[in-house]
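Same chain as my last thread, 326 residues:
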Amino acid sequence: MNSLVLQRVFAGLAIVGQIIVSLRRSLLLLPLVLLLAACNNDRPRVDMAKVTPDAAGTQVKDTRPPLHIAVAAMISPETTRQYYEELLRLVADRMGRRAVFSQRRTYAEVNTMVMNKEVDAAFVCAGPYVQGHEQFGMEILAVPVVHGVKVYHSYIIANRNSSYTSLNDLRGKKFAFTDPDSNTGSMVPTYMLAKRGETPDSFFGDHFFSNSHDNSIKAVANGQADGAAVDSLIWEFMNTIDPNVTSRTRIIEKSSPYGIPPIVVHPAMDPATKKKLKQVLLTLHEHKESAELLAKLQIDRFAEGDDKAYDTVREMSRWLEKEKGR
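reply #2:
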């Protein structure tokens, strides 16, 4: 066998060897890839205090019982985690527990978690509270006071550079709702259209659900939607933390006031735990660290809630159901 043939044989063997090594590596990595894919499909559920530093500064396992708190997707998961994690940790610490934070993609999923007692408390929207109260007696634990009031609105927004001045101008346009169960992001604009003898399908050229209020704001700012209905609290909050986005939108219509999104619990929650958690929430503003966090969230303080504040949401829901049945 001459030298040229030998060179070709050795080169071929080298290529085969490389292929075998690559296949072995791929097989070794396959379980990891599948695991990561599975993790990415999970809804966020984060134990925020599994370890804590001891007096010597070393890490020790936190053996305190968990306090499970869910936050509905009123704002996107990244923004929620960024601004709520520390607050929830402080609440849990004052309860003598460790915080476990959960978020779900839809409002209905969070309601189900409360109903099934999978969480101790949850931040929910006004519409889902009314549904949960009717379905299984969901209770208000506390409500935020924002700029001195316990109400909020639905803002109909459009792009800053558009000529639209009211919801009427969005006929035939592309519109962003947030969640099917959202009060300000779905029910209110649907009600506003129904009062005009219209439905989303008959009025808009196209419409979609963005899954959160900040996503809807961004969709309008970026021209992915001509208009949207969003929670006034979220728009004002975004206007503080990310004015580059809100400045590219305009508020073209504002709804009547509705009862503010509450913090809720299951009616069968242990009375002593419920009382202690409520007391912690109602006194957060009295402590410097938590007061500063509340200020970042544009919350003055937490206060007692009143189920009657949500009667206007109930009336609107009943009216829409009646119209749908005609």
